[in-house]
Amino acid sequence: MDANIVLLPGDGIGPEIVVQGKRVLEAIAAKFGHSFTISEHPIGGNAIDDFGDPLPQPTIDACKASQAILLGAVGGPKWDDPTAKTRPEVGLLKIRQELGLFANLRPIQTWDELVDASPIRREIVAGTDILFFRELTGGIYFGDSGRRPHASGEEAYNEMVYSTGEVERVVRLAAKAAQTRRGKLTSVDKANVLEVSRLWRQVADRVVKEEFPDLEYEVVLVDAMAMHLISRPKDFDVVVTGNMFGDILTDAASMLPGSLGLLPSASLGSDGPGLYEPIHGSAPDIAGQNIANPLATILATAMLLRHSLGLEDEAKAIEDVVAATLKAGHRTKDIAGGGAFVSTTEMGDIVVNQLG
Ligand code: NAI
Ligand code: MG
């Protein structure tokens, strides 16, 4: 297949890890006979330095003309000046908005070889394989907000709003993903207290009943979900929830595997390109040292192939190679536990060679 893929390396370790993702995409193209046109564009702090804008218009145009985008990370101390006109993260928020990316996907899986680094006991956490769908463009982060006078000084408020359409589209995406996995969908809300959650549950129940009757479906209250994630994470397959609940639950869940350097994420809209990235940031403390772990970014390329290009075998090939690489004992510094470690580029070499 022909595909147009945009790389947004960004700041800090972003360029070091994205180049390894690029090599993996090239290796996949060669192995499976695809033709990927790959171009690189500025975003974040480096774009502020060069163009005075964290998301220059040519970057937006290139993203909109692509099938998929691989992002490194943005930000760093250099751009933390609170008096600055703009900040690197603005570039990230704006590109998500420009592309209508309303669903954030975060797979949480464990690797047997690393599971002892998890804060949770092996017998509870080993074998965990969850795919979170966090709604990204609605809810309390985007509702009306403000402050007003109050007898005690002032009061502040944030409104939490979800529409039928916003719930339908994210539940539908999550349900489709569940069909391709273990066939189980969990919707998380707070319907015992919040009117917004009562609408969420009503819509989710209807969408699943009418369009996905074969799924094993359950609803769980968010506070209970926080407990279940820690006590029985293996019981979940696909989990769908609103913006704020998803923000908190996915951060908690990201601790289960025992390393941040291995976790990818995706942001999807109804059509158009998806945006794929590692969940970690630009790691300015290790930037330029060739020690960053490129595996989260490499796993993000697998998600890119699966969700934006429909290339499941290719995605699986990458995931299998990453699993084999870890099994063979190759470790970057962050997961070496003080033992011998390979560099960013060496880890890229190992993965690319195994793919070839
Ligand atoms: P961070 O995720 O960049 O780093 C946290 C710790 O994990 C650091 O010690 C770092 O060295 C380590 N780490 C992160 N990724 C790693 C990798 N691939 N290999 C090995 N070690 C890794 O989070 P932090 O320090 O809070 O933020 C640093 C900068 O990144 C800030 O400017 C922040 O705003 C930005 N950031 C950007 C994100 C994005 O672009 N999506 C997300 C989170 C933070
Ligand atoms: Mg967060």
Automatic annotation (TrEMBL):
One GO MF term: 3-isopropylmalate dehydrogenase activity
Catalytic reaction list: (2R,3S)-3-isopropylmalate + NAD(+) = 4-methyl-2-oxopentanoate + CO2 + NADH
Domain of life: Bacteria
Naturally occurring in which organism (per UniProt): Fuerstiella marisgermanici
Name of the protein: 3-isopropylmalate dehydrogenase
Gene Ontology cellular-component annotations: cytosol
PANTHER family from the UniProt entry: 3-ISOPROPYLMALATE DEHYDROGENASE (PTHR42979:SF1)
Main location (coarse class): cytoplasm
UniProt family annotation: Belongs to the isocitrate and isopropylmalate dehydrogenases family. LeuB type 1 subfamily.
Residues under site feature: Important for catalysis: 141, 190
Domain Isopropylmalate dehydrogenase-like intervals: 4-351
Subcellular localization(s) per the UniProt record: Cytoplasm
GO terms classed as biological process: L-leucine biosynthetic process
